[in-house]
Amino acid sequence: MSKKKTATITLKQRGKEQLMGMYRMMLLARRFEERANLLFVNSEVPGTVHLYTGQEAVAVGVCSALRPDDYITSTHRPHGHAVAKGIPVRQLIAELFARTTGCCGGYGGSMHMGSMEYNMLPAIAIVGGNIPIAAGLALACKRLKNDRVVACFFGDGASNEGAFHEGVNMAAIWDLSVVYVCENNLYGASTHVSRVMKVKHISDRAAAYGIPGVTVDGMDVLAVHDAVAEAVLRARSGGGPTLVECETYRFVGHSRTDPGLYRPKEELEHFKSLDSINCLRAKVLDAKLANEGEFKAIDESVENEIDDAIEFARQSPHPLPEDCLKNVFVGEGV
To answer: Is 69 helix (H, G, I), strand (E, B) or coil?
Structure first.
């Protein structure tokens, strides 16, 4: 059975630098989503968008427990993961605008963000599609003996896909260095998780593969960090994968056109009261590790960074028509 994890290190033991860094990164991810939503609503960028608003503690908690050379794989909701992995916001916004300066050169857009320079595979929009790929990536790391770890993000809905069972089982039998991070936000699109599984926690499923499964408060960045740090240590030392279920919540609908009316108003209000950004700020202030002026400076720097990224994207060049032939392999005789 899974064991509920909580934060294991005190605020003072973590130090001010780590705490303020986590706060800034979560706020950057939040403001990114808010501005991205406006850009889509105003038809300034093409396509659709799946916002990460509310789940920032998971991305930041996980990525802060990784080394820069560790990998992550992502989903159709990748913006928060990309921000937390350190991909410059300029590149991410430019990707939304489909400009050549985007992290994928404008080829990927919202659902396929990534950068091999920052060890984030371009995100895979197929639900559960990144789970076996994470196992393959970890197998490559094992063969290369480079002791890197792969953090694989996916939602509660993906845990019911065949790719989940196949990918996790493969990682388990080969003791691969994967940390499977299930972001359980209670809804697969509009379907509540209680309607599609009998077990209490998704992490309980780890027992079927002989690996540890833990459930953690996904609205608490410190608890997520500590649980993932333990799983990363296990993976890096050759102990194999861990399934970490982060109980979180998205404050917005599944996608741009979803008003989220299937969710009780009281449920949404409850989780908004647990907002990870506000809670961390309050904890740090209560512990007198920082003051309001320092937080205000971070708030302003984040706003400036987003403003700068949007202007950079607007001024960046569009791809040329012939660019559609780049990165395409044409076999002999075709």
So the answer is: coil
Q: Give domain status of residue 175, yes or no.
A: yes
d(CA 52, CA 193): 18
Instruction: Report the pLDDT value the prediction gives residue 7, as an integer from 0 to 100.
Output: 77
Beta carbons of 129 and 112 less than 8 angstroms apart: no
Which residue in 77, 43, 34 sits closest to 303, CA to CA? 34
**pLDDT tens profile 3-55:** 567 777 788 888 899 999 999 999 999 999 999 999 999 999 988 899 999 99
User: What is the band of 1 on the pLDDT scale with cuts at 50, 70, 90?
Assistant: very low
Is 21 a member of any domain?
yes
Question: What are the structure tokens assigned to 66, written together?
Answer: 């990784």
DSSP count for the chain of H helices, then E strands: 11, 8
CA distance 94 to 150: 26
Q: Are 85 and 55 in contact (CB under 8 A)?
A: no
CB burial readout 304-332, b (16+ within 10 A) else e? ebbeebbebbeebeeeeeeeeeeeeeeee
Which residue matches tokens 């950079």? Answer: 312
Distance CA 288, CA 269 (A): 28
**CA distances in angstroms from 125 to 146, 155, 202, listed in the order given:** 28, 12, 21
Tens-digit pLDDT profile for residues 266-310: 999 999 999 999 999 999 999 999 999 999 999 999 999 999 999
Residue 241 domain flag: yes
CB 120 within 8 A of CB 87: yes
Q: Supply the range of the domain harboring residue 305.
A: 3-204+234-321
Q: What is the DSSP letter of 63?
A: H
In a domain, 138, yes or no: yes
Q: What gap in Å lies between CA 261 and CA 26, rounded to an integer? A: 26
Would you give the distance in Å from CA 133 to the centre of its chain? 16
Query: What pTM was estimated for this model as a whole?
Result: 0.95
pLDDT at residue 151, as a whole number: 98
Task: Tell me how many domains the chain contains.
Answer: 1
* CATH number of the domain encompassing residue 74: 3.40.50.970
The answer to whether 51 and 32 have CB atoms below 8 angstroms apart is no
